[in-house]
From TrEMBL, chain A:
This is Uncharacterized protein.
From TrEMBL, chain B:
Pfam families: PP-binding (PF00550). Residues 13-94 form the Carrier domain. Coiled coil: none annotated. InterPro entries: ACP-like_sf, PP-bd_ACP. This is Phosphopantetheine-binding protein. It comes from the Bacteria.
Amino acid sequence: MLTGSWPSPAGGDEFALSFDQQRDKRVLVIPALFDESNKLRHFTVEVMRRLDTGGVDSMLPDLPGTNESLAPLTEQTVSGWRAAVEAAASHFKATHVLTLRGGTLLDPGTLPGLRYASVGGTALLRGLVRVQLLSDKEADLTTTRDELVARAESQGAQLAGYDLGPAMVRELAEAEAPDGPATEVKQAEMGGAGLWLRAEPAFDADQADALAALMLEQVG
Amino acid sequence: MSTNLPVPLELEGDTDLILRQVLSDVLGLSAERVADLDHDAGLFGHLPELDSMAVAGLLTELEDRLDIIIEDDEVDGEMLETYGGLLSYLAAKRNEG
């Protein structure tokens, strides 16, 4: 496992975790978004380990504003993340993509590969807003969904611990995965419940085996 | 097996199974712990795994699997207090739809 960096189109370098031996088959891994990225990090890296064992390179870039990134999250947008993913795909000379959950929204739409348990922007945003509403309620604040969404869309808001700018909220509300050659994989094919659901991050080696095997089939 | 069961009863049976499955998937509870949840079993405030972040995930997953919409202002301590309370709420929601 290597760590490296890649030039972000927004300026500055971003971190990437990679299994890179300059092999012919190179998979760009686009992580799940927001809290789901934490829940799926272990799973994601374990899938990459299995791809490595299977003779395939893989790279997992930090999206600007996430993980080790120094860029402020409030300034990020879905379109900005899409540009960043395209830049990473080009920098790493990716031949395939593996997108996970909300990461599917950022699929460049040009490379073959897999889309794992994709989720739309509307559903992701709804989940973030719900966490915030529950948290407000615990703090004895009476916020309604409509008020919170309106505020988030006009001036940005902290949702589920993430400081999102207004443009990110507006773009997320309508974001869908672009058409592309990558194939959708349903959670039902993994032989267990989705790990992003778990209240405490968990790992399941069988599921990592299953997704890596499907990905290796795609890569051929 | 009788096929003349009234629809609401059948629906609650199905809802019960789905609720147990979702609790297991979200909270990582073992099959035994999930099977042991009876009508009066405490949920929110009783299961350490069930914090507000987990509640949000739980409700969203229940919406998906039961094909219902849970209004945010209906979510309170009472609705989530016991297993039976949550089950009744969900069964009623499904009957509405």
